[in-house]
Each structure stands twice: as structure tokens, then as C-alpha cells.
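We emphasize that the prediction below concerns an isolated chain of 458 residues; any contacts that depend on oligomerization or on bound cofactors are therefore not represented. The input was used exactly as deposited, without trimming of termini.
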Amino acid sequence: MTIIQIHLITTSDRYTKLMMLSRKPIKKLQTFRQKPKFLLALVFLTLLSGIILFNWVAISQQPVTLNLLMPAPDVRPFREGMVKDFEAQNPGIRINLLEGPNAANLVEDLYTSAFLLGDSPYDLINMDVIWTPKFAAAGWLLPLDDRISQEELAAFLPKDVEAGYYQGKLYRMPIRSDVGMLYYRKDLLKQAGFEPPETFADLMRISQILQKTDQVNWGYLWQGRQYEGLVAMFVEVLEGFGGFWVNPDTLAVGLDRPESLQAVEFLRSTIQQGVSPPGVTTYQEEDTRRLFQSGQAVFLRSWPYVWPLANQENSPVAGKIGIKSMVHAPEQTGGACLGGWGLGIAKSSKHPEAAWKAIQYFTSEEAQQRFILQSGFVPSRRSLFTNPDIVAKYPHYPQLLKVVEKSVLRPPVAQYAQVSDILQRYLSAALSGRISPKRAMQAAAGETRRLLEVGTKK
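Result of the prediction step, given as a C-alpha cell string:
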């Protein structure tokens, strides 16, 4: 019997047990009681057992700490918008937010490096919408299917939920959505008697007419630099022409089909006809946002984060902009590229139950509402787009929901990073004039097919 066990029994029994441990006969109990040294030892043992028991209880009651890595811009709104409230309601769990780089691809590299080393320190995995297939295929995530019902999932945006699946299993719960959209100067269109454009031809025609009035320098701004933003933008144009990139079910590749060539030619024509700046093939989101916000363009393809910035009091276009889905070819429908972030549980986590409890809270309607009101991000729950408190602060959210409902996923394949890199390289070469669109798309399609074929043989 241990010292702690001795401490827990009754006082009268303690002497008996001590006698057993010291191998002294019970009949000599009175003798031991008369010896001061024994009494001193007894007091010492009692105190020691109490200290050990106290420490054991204290250790067992220490809060569980869940490590979560996030891009730097998301850390502060996430901590202030949700983490503080979660910890207040769950004193036994602490969230250790680790600030990563600004760029999402660098955060992905940190996750990948940690998992490849075999001893990842992360419990909750904060995933961009395009990481789920890679992380799940590598065996880095726990499936979540048995933790949530289809009825509960129905409260979220369908495409956001779909983005959390890989090969029929759910690995990611959407915490906030994101979607590409077309911004337009509603004041200029109204003055000229135009409705917002629906087709690619409408966009080009309105741009050229308004450029001639000298009210704007450019018609249409988009992200043309060789990076993931180029791919996200191209997916929307490709969808508008009725084309596809990779079919995730059959792994068919559509980059060399006529629709893909039409999409590339449209983007090239915006530069050749002066609707887009010559330097657009070097632009990222912030380059295009600054030009549009300064009043230099009619149309901008970008993400929802632009809205609050463009409507600041000191913005030249404050109160003058509208939003809609990307334009399309006749008899086709527009498509908005889905972005957004979600949470999964690392397979290596020692605290999966605590991690799931955190995910349940962070994706709850109550927490998301507080988070959206504080940060201005896009919710992943449908009901919040028409929530009165949110609409009072962000009146464009009901319109934003219409854009989100037409969202398009980038192909959810395990080799997505390599597939994207192929498209980026050849698309950039075609748009900058280094290679013809036909040759570029044929090469991109061929290289993508070879990559996917190798992947299926493994």
C-alpha cells in the first residue's frame, strides 16, 4: 500500500497499517505511541502523504491545451472573437494560438513540415479549403463523420461542407467562408444607364464606353500574377464558359478543351483591348484593390475583404459599389470560386475530445455571429447572411449569399498543389504572351494527366 493510500484510511487504522509496514506486532502499539520519535515520524508521513495527494490532484486538474496554427491576420480576430469566450465557458481547455506567416501557402508548408517529422505539435488544424484532400490523403486528420449528423451539417453552406469531404469521409468543419465576386461602380453604371453586366461581352462593352468618358482609367481588374490567386480567378472565368479543370470523380482533365481556350483568350483580350492594365499579369489582390478603391476602374474581381475597406469614410468609392457573381458566356451560368477556412483534428492529437468540443463551439451559430460582427469575415452558416444584427452592420450580406450559392470548388484531389502549380505556370506564360494559349493549355493538360495517372498507380 502506498503512502497516499495510508493517508486516506481512518486515523485508528493508520497506526495498525504503520505497524504492518514496520513489521511490528500490534500489541506493542502503546509502546510506539509513547515514543516522541515515532510521533514525529507519523506527523511527517501524514504531511508528506497530503502533499503528494495535493500535487496529484493539482496535476490531474490542469487544463488541456490545444495548439492551433493560423495565418497572422486571422489570429487577433479569432482570439478576441471566439477564443476568449470559449475558454470562459470551458475552464478545463485552453487554446494556444500560434501566429504563422501572412501567406496561406507558407502556413501550409509549416503544417506539412510538422506532420512529415512525425510528431506534429498541433491538435486543431486550421485548413484552407484546398488543403483537405492533401491532408486527409496523407493520413494526418481524424474523420469527423461519427461526431456530427447530416441534419446538423445542413445548417452550413453546401459547398463549404462539400469541401470538407475526401473520398466519402468528412475531415473539415467550415468556420468561415470566402468567395470570389465581381465588384462594380454602381454610380457610374447608373449615370450611363447600364445594368450590371451578365456576360463577358457586356463587361467589355460597358468598360470601353466608360473609359472613353475619362471617368476611369481602366475597365476591369483581375489577379494575373503566377500564384494561387491566378488559379482562383481563372476557375470563375472557366466556369463562365462552361469548361472544367479536373473532374475529381473521373480525373478527366479539361484544360485543352475549347472552353478553356476561350477563357484564356478572353483574359488576353482584356489586356490587348486596353480594358485591363498591361501590368495586370503581375497583380495580386492588394494591387487590384488599391487601383479600384482609388476610383481608377469600373470592375474588379476580388474577395469579400475588399468591401469594408472600399467603403471606409476616406475611400473615394465609399457607397458607390455593388457586388455580383462573375459574368459568363451566353447560355452559361457564372461561377464564384470558393475560398474559406475550416477546422479539423490532427490524428496525432492527444486530446481529440477536447478538440472536437472546441470545433463545436467555434462553428456554432452563437460564436460565428459574434466573430462575423467583430471581423467582417464571411460566415459558413446560411442563417447568418440574413441575421438582423449582421445585416444592420453589413447590408450587402444577403446579396453576398447569392454569390456564395453559385460557388465553384477547385478540384479536390490529393495532388492539388502540383496540379495548381502546373496551371499557374502555363496560364501565366499564355497571358503574358510567352507562349500561345493553345500550346500552353495543351501542355498544361498533358502534364496534369501524367501527374494524376502516376498518383492513381501508387
